[in-house]
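Bit of a strange request maybe. I'm writing a small parser for structure token strings and I need a real example to test against, not something I typed by hand. Could someone generate the tokens for this chain?
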Amino acid sequence: MSEEKETALNVNLETTINGDEDRLSNLPDDVLITILSLLDAKEIIQTWLLSKRWCHLWRFVPRLKFCDDYLKEHMTDKLEGIKLTRFQNFVSSFLLLRDNSTDLHTFKLRNGISSHSLSWIRYVLNHNPKILDIDLLTMVKPDCCFDQIVFTCESLEDLSFGLYEKIVLDEVSLPNLRKLFFGLVLINHDSVCEVLCGCPVLENLSFWGSRVNANELLFKSIKQLTLFQCELLSQMDLPRSFPIFGPELEYLKIEDCAGAVELKDMSKVKKVRITNIKRANSSPDNCEYLSSFSCVEDLKINNWFWMKKILEKELQNCPTFHNLKKLALGTGCIRCGDFDELLPSFLKRCPNLERLKIFHKDDGCEVHDAHNDLDAHELVELLVKSTSGMDQVQIILKTQE
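Reply from user aminoacidic:
Good idea to test on real output. This should exercise your parser:
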């Protein structure tokens, strides 16, 4: 421990302004530093005003969050340059004056747009970070090798990486990484393979607003996979299906994605969320989804075209879903004349189903004609015939936010 920190430990402010004992400032340094770790970096600095006891504690905080949103709230074009310069100077000064011997467990940089961002990240990576959350929308030059240095930090356990452009990863070495989030990136097949090979204990993987260009995705160790508002394309943008293998997957969420997705080898998946896969060939003829979800316990689907095509093709030979206890279907999936036979037949293969939820959500699902939708009476009649042994049936007819 440095001499300055030892001095801070011995500081004891015995009274407050009104003469009462200042119990907060009398707490041990480790406790106060834990409290400071819950604050934004700007708020941490403001604790100087509390008392002399707090003056140097900020230098030893192991969790830092820098966000320039507070600079942009009332920003005009005239003041933009000044405020961004202030933010840049604030972050640079904070890191420069921080105790260099203290590890940086968590570092979050949101909406960073400074030319100094690369030097900030280099500082962080030299202090054994466990959690790194960086959202860099418009600031790093394409040739700065920023992504490469981040993906070779062996201390990382949780990485959220938001960039504005294509990333190319020639080497990935993240032996302790368990959670990885990609936001607004364009990533190719080779880079995805590098990530999966270089992260041997990775369990939770998310792509948000990204474009994934690959031949296939094989997630050997992944237990949770989220694809949100992504474009999934095969190599060279060829019009073919996009296979996703997940032998260890337990949770799968695909929402508002474009691409011809194949889901294979997912026998361990327990919770599935699928909403609005945007492409007519999203259910390839050579893929059997229901067999892939044979062990699912909680299933939610709100994509009419996708669900109908699957049931028509696979229902006759699909397995019995002994583990399925919760089933949620959007009204985009329930249509008179199409599901009056398909839905009851499917429910008969769910002998242990405990809860069926029918909800309405206007999310742009394909093939949605209002005059063909089941009204409330038709829906109730259909469900009564299909769910006689069920503990709970919930019908929500109003739009869900």
